[in-house]
Structure formats: C-alpha cells, structure tokens
Amino acid sequence: MTTLVLTIVGDDRHGLVAAVADAVDAHGGNWENSQLAELAGVFAGIVEVAVPDDRVDELRAALRGMDGLLNITAHPSSAAAAREREASARHFGFRVLGNDRPGIVREVSSTLSAQGVSIDRLTTETRDAAMSGGRLFEATIAARVPPTVDIDAVQAALERLATEIQVDVTVGD
C-alpha cells in the first residue's frame, strides 16, 4: 500500500467529502486520517489515504478529474520516516489565548522552531470577546519535542514570549 496525503480546497457545498471518499473507495483505497473544515465559505482539508501500489496513478487521475468541484493535490507520504520520528519524540501541548493582533502565530511558531520543536497540529480561531468588545485569538498546539530538547526550556521560552506579546499560555495536553 502507498500512503498519500491529499490537500483539498474548494467552494463549500454539500457532497464534497462524499465525492472524495467515493474516489478513494473506487480505487481500493482506505481513508485513514483527516482534518476538514469550512473557513470563510471555502472547504479545505487534508486527508491521509492508503491505496494499493498499482492503483495510485488511477486515483491521482480520478482526483484531478474533480477540478472545478475541488482542487486536490496528492502528495506521497514518508510514513516510515514519520513512524521513526514518532517513536523517539515526546509530545507537548499548549493553548494560547489573548487579544487578537497580527503576528501571534508567527511569534509562537518561531519560538518553537528556535527550540527545535515541530508542530504536529495547530488549530486557531478568532472570536468576539464577550466583555471588552474586541476580538480574542485562541490557538491549540500539539508539538513534537526531540529527545535532545529540554521540555522545561521550551516551556520557559513560551512563558517569556507570552509576557512579551501579552497572551496567556497554558501548558497541558
């Protein structure tokens, strides 16, 4: 089996997930992991599928045939390398909450990168602040910390950043 990671983008409407799932199934594939969302009227997602080696090209062609409905790109996966990284990594999760302003994701991701930490999952949202009338920014981050990196140092760097940019950082899975 070959693992493909599909990136999917298109105008939101009913039946998009079913269309992709039908194509995967029709080519002997298995839908394994996904993150899908509607953002500002656009449907976007990333999907991991496994497909028989001899059907990969057929599935790619079928997905290309969805142009106009969805723009889909099939990326080959390095599943073996991912399993190897996962075996030795430690996980670190945290949330960021504060007044919304440009640059928060850049600053948090740069701090993690400087510490040698990789982001596995990042979810963000902005919403109206109930009492102040402004906008709040919230991020939930799951990160992978190599064995050579001190988790306490990562946490200290995030706490320094939180003070600088005036956000709350809460560590915990």
Characterization of this structure:
Residues 5-77, 93-173 form the ACT domain. It comes from Microbacterium rhizomatis. One of its GO terms (biological process) is regulation of DNA-templated transcription. This is ACT domain-containing protein. InterPro entries: ACT-like_dom_sf, ACT_dom, GcvR, UPF0237/GcvR_regulator. With 173 residues, this protein is α+β, with helices and mostly antiparallel strands. The protein has two domains: 2-77, ACT domain (Alpha-Beta Plaits); 88-171, Alpha-Beta Plaits. Helix content is 32%, strand content 42%. The strands form two sheets. Strands 2-3-1-4 form a four-stranded antiparallel sheet, covered by helices on one side. Strands 6-7-5-8 form a four-stranded antiparallel sheet, with helices on one face. Strand 2 (30-39) and strand 3 form a beta hairpin. Helix 4 (104-114) packs antiparallel against helix 5 (151-165). The two termini are 32 Å apart. The model has no long low-confidence stretch (mean pLDDT 90).
Number of helices: 5
What would you call the quaternary organization? single chain
Distance between the termini: 32 Å
Low-pLDDT parts are: none
Largest sheet: 4 strands, antiparallel
CATH C-level class of the largest domain: Alpha Beta
Q: In what order do the strands lie side by side in the largest sheet?
A: 2-3-1-4
Order of helices and strands: EHEEHEHEHEEHE
The percent range for helix content is: 25-40%
Rg result: 19 Å
Assign the CATH topology of the largest domain.
Alpha-Beta Plaits
